[in-house]
Automatic annotation (TrEMBL):
The keyword Transmembrane applies. One of its GO terms (cellular component) is plasma membrane. It is a multi-pass membrane protein. Its main location: membrane. It is found in: Cell membrane. Residues 1-27 are annotated as: Disordered. Belongs to the amino acid-polyamine-organocation (APC) superfamily. Basic amino acid/polyamine antiporter (APA) (TC 2.A.3.2) family. One of its GO terms (molecular function) is transmembrane transporter activity. Keywords: Amino-acid transport, Cell membrane, Membrane, Transmembrane, Transmembrane helix, Transport. It comes from Luteimicrobium subarcticum. InterPro entries: AA/rel_permease1, Amino_acid_antiprt, APC_superfamily. The chain crosses the membrane at residues 34-52, 64-85, 106-127, 147-168, 180-202, 222-240, 252-275, 302-329, 350-369, 381-401, 466-487. GO terms for biological process: amino acid transport. This is Arginine:ornithine antiporter (APA family).
Length: 493
């Protein structure tokens, strides 16, 4: 899906974002760093919970089908992002900019808010899992939901704020080291699990337990889990303004995705050869540690636990960078309040970084009132990211449909098929997330409208257009419904 940069109507739809094309870059990174950003943001808390989350729903057959479907769907999205990085190199922080360029200012705003909030909620899930892991050695931390765990997690949030505030280059350099360090335990796990695999146990786990239901329901029940695992595939696209060569953004996206898919699928499948499905499902998080402990003893659990802490801290760093970057680019393009476009001498968007830390802190405090803070934060993170994914894939389809950037003899058929299937896949995921997470997501989108209103008041513009009023009313109604259902215990979180 290659071609010349966007030049038609789609390209002009975001004149604000295009200003970045000529702006001098104080920092730049190469393809290797962009690949580690993709891998670093994808390999986090999700992979260490995959065995338990999958075994709770399905067996080996359902797992293979799920990874085949999810891998294909997300690979198509990765190809769309690769194409857009070449065809629309003037659009920075892709996930947000693509939504705005294709579907208008308000769609871009919602995409930026959804992606940013998804990153912040995901970071809370990371801290909960870290404290739960350490809690196995230090009972005072419990399952990551005690006041001591909350206090330590809060210290971590603000500690990382200070690290990232020092500069993009220092944070990216640390991310490269952490990415390598956290992949090693996962590869070791796969190799050990293959060596100790019991073919009889693997065969018994093939079709899943009787309570798992039909194969279709098993696959449906695990697809949302894969969304959380694949979050970060757009990492290079989000950080595109720092790329030394824009072509490296697309290449890094595909290389990073394929590498991580191989690791995720392997980790999940080989676990079924170590323990029966019901025992894997009953393991405390991180379930990966329990599987390796059953295979080789206590040292296996220690290895995974150390790898988890390193992996999650690395992913937290990547997501902190990406969350702030999306808000900064949106503010620079006059779609967010001016205070979010402020940068320091190290080219770090301090206003956006501070707001991200504040939201993470707020969600961390709220998570203490959840029945299962980690699982809820994980699924809510996935649900919030789906709207930005749908809009990005839709923009890819729009670019192909209008043949923007194509030569007279250049074929667009293959690109149209890829973009169409990617859009269909993300839409199905959004529908499959269910009304529960749609309603809870409205609790984020509705209040965030205040940022839009402040932005337009700063610019002396009309606060809302008629179509936007309709969307805001729907979001407020959904948020109000969620509050009522939560207050009456009819919506469990």
């Amino acid at each position: 899906m290659r071609g010349r940069p966007v030049t038609g109507d789609v390209g002009r739809a975001d004149a604000g974002t295009s200003r970045a094309a000529s702006a001098p870059r104080e920092t730049s990174v190469g393809r290797g760093t962009l690949v580690t950003l993709v891998v670093g943001s994808m390999v986090g808390a999700g992979v260490f919970s995959l065995p338990g989350r999958f075994a709770d729903v399905t067996g080996v057959a359902g797992t293979l089908i799920t990874w085949a479907l999810a891998g294909t769907g997300m690979f198509l999205l990765a190809l769309v992002l690769q194409s857009l990085a070449v065809r629309a190199p003037h659009l920075d922080a892709g996930i947000y900019a693509y939504a705005k360029a294709g579907f208008g200012e308000y769609a871009g705003f919602l995409s930026a808010i959804g992606y940013w909030a998804s990153a912040c909620v995901g970071n809370v899930a990371y801290w909960v899992l870290i404290m739960s892991t350490v809690g196995q050695l230090w009972p005072a931390l419990g399952a990551g939901d005690t006041w001591l765990a909350t206090a330590l997690s809060s210290a971590g949030i603000w500690g990382f704020f200070l690290v990232v505030r020092r500069g993009i280059r220092s944070a990216a350099g640390l991310n490269r080291v952490v990415t390598v360090a956290k992949v090693v335990p996962l590869v070791a796990f796969v190799l050990i699990a293959v060596l100790v695999c019991d073919p009889h146990v693997l065969a018994d786990n093939w079709s899943g337990s009787p309570a798992s239901g039909s194969l279709v329901s098993q696959v449906r029940g695990t697809l949302l889990v894969t969304v959380f695992a694949f979050l970060g595939v757009e990492g290079a696209s989000v950080w595109s303004r720092h790329a030394r060569d824009r072509r490296d953004v697309g290449r890094a996206t595909v290389l990073g995705f394929l590498s991580v898919l191989a690791v995720f699928a392997s980790v999940t499948v080989v676990s079924y050869g170590v323990l029966p499905q019901d025992q894997i499902a009953a393991l405390p998080e991180p379930s990966l540690a329990g599987v390796l402990e059953a295979a080789v003893g206590t040292w296996g659990s220690v290895l995974v636990s150390v790898g988890l802490v390193v992996a999650v801290l690395g992913a937290y760093l990547s997501w902190t960078l990406m969350a702030a970057e999306v808000l900064f680019v949106a503010a620079r393009d006059d779609d967010m309040p001016r205070f979010l476009r402020r940068t320091n001498a190290a080219d770090v968007p301090v206003g956006a970084l501070l707001l991200s830390a504040v939201l993470a802190q707020a969600v961390l405090l709220l998570s203490r009132f959840s029945q299962d803070a980690f699982t809820f934060a994980q699924d809510l993170t996935s649900a919030l990211a789906l709207v930005p994914y749908v809009l990005a894939a839709g923009f890819g389809l729009l670019v192909v449909a209008r043949r923007t950037g194509y030569g007279p003899t250049e074929r667009a058929g293959p690109d149209r098929l890829v973009a169409g299937l990617a859009t269909l896949y993300t839409l199905l995921l959004l529908v499959g997330a269910g009304p529960k997470y749609v309603l809870v997501s409205a609790l984020v989108y509705a209040p965030a409208t205040v940022l839009l209103l402040r932005t337009r008041r700063e610019q002396g513009r009309r606060l809302l257009r008629a179509p936007e009023v309709v969307v805001v009313v729907v979001l407020v109604a959904a948020a109000a419904s969620a509050v009522v259902l939560l207050a009456t215990d009819r919506l469990d979180v």
